[in-house]
Amino acid sequence: MPNMKNKRSYNFYALLSRMRYIERWPLMRNTQKENILEHSADVAIFAQALAIIDNEIFGGDADVNLAGSLALYHDVSEVITGDLATPVKYFNTEIKKAYKDLERVAEDKLMSMLPLALAKRYEKLMRPDVGIYEYKLVKAADKISAYLKCVDELSAGNNEFSLAADKLRSQIAELKCREADYFLENFTDGYGKPLDTL
């Protein structure tokens, strides 16, 4: 049993709760704002779906819980860095590298806000092995989430998202992720439709 006499207060979870204040799509006119907490929940749902599709449709052995957990934490550094707009983040290799370095500093800061035993576990979620299949599924789920945000905006008459939708759809295809292709083919028709038609 841990010694509660020498208790130290840790602020990791309190800071993560502020993910709801970090808005995505900062340079775009939105009909419905989206924050990184909402986005992370969507990505977790989609990553688990892709893992289940891998297992049940394609006979794979993806770890459904790992995929969901990685997705929940894939953008946590943005609670410190904010969500840098994509055209800026990927403007050139120097900016991309600098932002990656900044993300690493933010992850270090977050892990310093945990007891060491917990930090080791969370490090595996914030800095996963990029070679594992579940990481590939999270990357696809992230693109799917962004694409479906575009679909929602377009259905609300906001053409600001038309180019982003086309680009994201192409990026998903370029991933050559059979689970993502299956998901888009079978589960996205309802997005953008009125509730009474679902």
CATH superfamily: Hypothetical protein af1432
As an assembly, this protein is single chain
Helix percentage: 55-70%
CATH architecture annotation name? Orthogonal Bundle
Comma- or semicolon-separated keywords:
Hypothetical protein af1432; mainly alpha; 61% helix; 198 residues; 0% strand; 10 helices
What's the structural blueprint in terms of helices and strands?
Blueprint: H1 12-16, H2 36-56, H3 64-72, H4 78-81, H5 86-89, H6 93-111, H7 116-126, H8 133-155, H9 162-175, H10 178-187
Write a compact overview of the structure shown.
With 198 residues, the protein is mostly helical. The chain has helices spanning 12-16, 36-56, 64-72, 78-81, 86-89, 93-111, 116-126, 133-155, 162-175, 178-187.
Protein described:
It is a single chain. The chain is mainly alpha-helical and 198 residues long. The chain has a single domain, classed as Hypothetical protein af1432, CATH 1.10.3210.10. The chain has helices at 12-16, 36-56, 64-72, 78-81, 86-89, 93-111, 116-126, 133-155, 162-175, 178-187. α2 (36-56) packs across α8 (133-155) and α3 (64-72) packs across α8 (133-155). The longest helix is centred in the last third of the chain and has 23 residues, at 133-155.
